Amino acid sequence: MTTHLRHDATSHGRLNLEQQRKRAKELLKAALAHEPSALARVARHIPLRESTLRLADAQFVMAR
User: Fold this and answer.
1) Beta-carbon neighbour count of residue 52 at 10 Å?
2) Average pLDDT, the chain
């Protein structure tokens, strides 16, 4: 399986957890602002539901 990580998200082959948290927060903010690309990314991993998207959901998507 191929992973798609940005260079700044890794350090010597390890994930930079602080950077991953920031990216999850950015994804959450974009999805809540109804940005199409963010919504599409979330929809690939999280089923549609009526409750508000949470940071944990964005972190789950980032982990995929």
Assistant:
1) 9
2) 84
